[in-house]
Design the sequence.
């Protein structure tokens, strides 16, 4: 239950970061158009003023793109770290479950060896019949 909660929190963080990054990238064309309208509106002013405005707009856009790149890099780094942690946790959990299953099988084999042999024989029989039917339908 606790692991599911942690996975849910990690998924929320990843979704939030992705949402921010996508929102920033999607709103970029609108901001560029808005900036172009500002430059167009200032075209009546002396050329130096329009050039300054365009230069400021380009600088602002460059800074924003740089900021978005940095944020994306940080987010990717965080995801990589969290994914590594989660993979380690899942690997540990799988190892524990495999060890527990081995213990149960060993215990069952010691307690009821005849039942185990019969179970394997039944499984082999069912598998053999299934394969035989499969081969007969394939021509």
Sequence:
């Amino acid at each position: 239950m606790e692991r599911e909660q942690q996975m849910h929190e990690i998924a929320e963080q990843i979704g939030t970061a992705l949402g921010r990054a996508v929102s920033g990238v999607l709103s970029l064309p609108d901001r560029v158009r808005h900036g172009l309208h500002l430059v167009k509106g200032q075209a009546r002013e002396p050329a130096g003023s329009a050039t300054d405005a365009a230069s400021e707009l380009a600088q602002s856009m460059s800074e924003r793109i740089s900021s978005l790149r940095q944020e994306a890099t940080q987010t990717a780094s965080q995801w990589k770290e969290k994914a590594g942690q989660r993979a380690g946790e899942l690997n540990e959990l799988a190892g524990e479950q495999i060890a527990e299953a081995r213990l149960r099988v060993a215990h069952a084999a010691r307690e009821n060896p005849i039942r185990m042999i019969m179970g394997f024989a039944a499984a082999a029989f069912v598998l053999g019949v299934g394969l035989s039917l499969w081969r007969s339908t394939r021509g």
